[in-house]
What we know:
Blueprint: H1 4-15, H2 18-25, H3 33-50, H4 53-59, H5 62-71, H6 78-97, H7 101-121, H8 127-140, H9 147-152, H10 159-169, H11 176-189, H12 195-207, H13 212-224, H14 228-236, H15 249-261, H16 264-277, H17 284-297, H18 307-318, H19 325-340, H20 344-358, H21 361-368, H22 379-395, H23 399-413, H24 424-439, H25 443-455, H26 462-475
Helix pairs in contact: 1-2, 1-3, 2-3, 3-5, 3-6, 5-6, 6-7, 7-8, 8-10, 8-11, 10-11, 11-13, 13-14, 14-15, 15-16, 15-17, 15-20, 16-17, 17-18, 17-19, 18-19, 20-21, 20-22, 21-22, 22-23, 22-24, 23-24, 24-25, 24-26, 25-26
Amino acid sequence: MWTPGLQHAYTDLQKGRVTPARQTLIRESAKNGIRLFVDDYADMLLLVTTDDDKLFARLSHREAERIDALELLDDASPWQRVLLAEVRLHWAFIKLKFGKETSASWDVIRAYRLLTENQKLFPDFLPTYKSLGTLHVLIGSVPDSYAWVAKLLGLRGNIGQGQREIKQAQQDAIFGLEARLIDLLVRAYVVQFTDSDERVLRQLMRDNPDNLLLHFFAATTEQKQGRSEQALAYLSSRPTSSDYLPMPVIDNILGDIYLQKGQYATATAHFRRFLSQYKGRNFLKDTRYKLFLCYWMADRSADLSDAEGRAMLEQVTRVGRTSVESDKAAQRFAEAYLKRGASVIQKVLMRARLATDGGFTDSALTYLQPYTEIRFATLTERAEYNYRLGRIYQRRNDPDVAIPYLSRALDLTDTPDGRQQELSFGASAALQLGYIYQQKNDRAQARSFFQKALTFKRHEYKNSIDNKARAALSQL
């Protein structure tokens, strides 16, 4: 059962205040199932923010111990299955961070079955729907080529269903804030983040100034939307007392923002601080790749004859692992650069990309305006040049100027033989054209471009672009 102390501890954990929460938990009964869940939540936060392999090895036995204890609880209570499922999902998230994908998948499957059973037995029990809705969104986001696996395992759901259930969970007194945050993250990473969602996020931030985790998620969401200046404001105002979790990853995000702004010395300092404090093996390739970009973008030569630049990229190929997408991308870049090098013109495109990603469109335009498509030698460079200009004007709320550039990027990559479909610029351009025509209320054009985005088969962002295109089609 929830006691006032457990509610207080859980609220502290949702803010990232692990030390005060642990102190509160000491006074609670170890036999209380809610206490087991809150203890587990604290472990999850610690493990996913540190990525510490030694800590994972030391704490991993706790999953089985807590599952065994929760299974002894009265199964006539609607809480029993929810708590079991929550613990399973905690450890699924943890295992994914540590490269244990198979074990994590089984935890997800067991959690799904517990939650669907609880929904049938107690359909009005709101806590069920926070995680069940999240799972339905994830199942609905499974790429088409893997959908049969989900069905074979009995996993059914779609994005719309999941969003409705998450919205339902927002009415719950305990899980309401978490459900609201999940809803915003789904809109940012799976569907489309709107101006209305932006207003909701800003209100959440005003209502919760002492919540470090909310500052972190708000910053990453803003960064995802190309509003890095707002992300910087959220991180600059975050709480920093010793009561909160240490989060080295925040320095990595700050490094990203200053790299986008072209402030390379400041970015380098943040990336190096992250590497000095971080104990995990993820993001090591990505961070060294970004250190190389700081070096390269600062107008030093960093070509194949440049020993320091080459040494930075050689480190990328040797350290860490490729469990997360950013490390995979860093590995690909390093291997390609070490093999073929990069031209001055590619540096221009990279500067424009970084500035555009951060929403610094004045700088991005300044980088590209001296050039025309004919200055770029390869089809890949020409497609990227047009795509970058299209995105710049789209983010400047000038869609009619953006459309010709995005259309050109699509035409360059949508070749009859399909040989250029491994380039992401075509699929990305089709998706953005779909959004533009959706905003213009031209449903037929929007639908055609979302469907076109799905036809690109082999590019590196296929899963995320396909998810967004399918979600947009369902909204139409």
